[in-house]
Amino acid sequence: DGGITQSPKYLFRKEGQNVTLSCEQNLNHDAMYWYRQDPGQGLRLIYYSQIVNDFQKGDIAEGYSVSREKKESFPLTVTSAQKNPTAFYLCASSSVDGYTFGSGTRLTVV
Amino acid sequence: GDSVTQMEGPVTLSEEAFLTINCTYTATGYPSLFWYVQYPGEGLQLLLKATKADDKGSNKGFEATYRKETTSFHLEKGSVQVSDSAVYFCALSHKMIKAAGNKLTFGGGTRVLVKP
Questions:
Q1: Bridge-partner residues for A12, per DSSP?
Q2: How far away is chain A from the Cα of B84, in angstroms, using its nearest Cα?
Q3: Helix H segments across chain A?
Q4: Contact across the interface for B42 and A41, Cβ inside 8 Å
Q5: Cβ neighbours of residue A30 under 8 Å, at least 6 residues apart?
Q6: Closest Cβ opposite residue A90 in set B44, B98, B100
Q7: Mean pLDDT, each 10-residue run in order, chain B (116 residues)
Q8: Do residues A5 and A61 lie in contact, with contact meaning Cβ atoms separated by under 8 Å?
């Protein structure tokens, strides 16, 4: 079955460390997205990519970086510059038919 | 820019009660409108959508009608079940161009708790 796989499901990071969240899709979608979800808040767009080797900043890109070397993969790195990284991170992809979301990664800074 | 506003929760109701979650939007042109549902610890699942004015999206007993005149897309269900307990998000997107897609703009989410 086609879908989006995010890993790991839970991730713990020490302050000052970079950490990378994985997102892989086998839907053959061109566009991929990273959203951040905080308790009681909606989803805010971090980065998105409409094609391989190209990506754009979303609304809250500071402290994050991405790459899009392959169509199937869109990893997100949370850097030490991100002041408050504890959150639920959702990856998504889309085609003209709509969006598909992964099951998310919960990142906690310890 | 685009924005979506939905009623704050939590909304607590009894099984078989009527559910309404209000959603209004601000956007240029004629966006597509969506309702997504998120169960605890999971990602988002598309519940229903509408792509033009007066369209009614429906799924699993939920309905929402695209009202251009009031810029609204309220979600309703006539008789809720305990299994409907979740967080519901209203969202909009402008029309897809080719296969590139467009980013979704979300409301803040409404938590719904249905008690037996």
A1: A108
A2: 18
A3: none
A4: no
A5: A50, A51, A71, A95, B99, B100, B101
A6: B44
A7: 89 97 92 93 90 94 96 97 96 68 85 96
A8: no
Q: Identify the helix (H) or strand (E) that includes residue A67.
A: none
pLDDT digits (tens), chain A, 110 positions? 679 999 999 999 898 899 999 999 999 999 999 999 997 778 999 999 989 999 999 989 999 999 999 999 999 999 988 889 999 999 999 887 788 999 999 999 98
Give pLDDT, residue B99: 47
Tokens 């209000």 map to which residue? B22
Encoded tokens for B61: 């007993």
Q: Which residues of A touch B99 (CB under 8 A)?
A: 29-31, 95-96
How close is the nearest chain B Cα to the Cα of A80, in Å? 25
Check CB contact under 8 Å for B99 and A58: no
Place of tokens 């504890």: A86
Q: Please spell the DSSP secondary structure of B43-88, one letter per residue.
A: -EEEEEEE-STT-EEEETTEEEE-BTTTTB--EEESS--GGG-EEE
Give which of A28, A35, A43, A88 to mutate to test B binding, by max B Cβ within 10 Å. A43
Q: pLDDT > 90: what percent of chain B?
A: 75
CB contact under 8 A, B43 and A104: yes
The residues, ordered by sequence, that sit 6+ positions from B97 with a Cβ below 8 Å of its Cβ are none
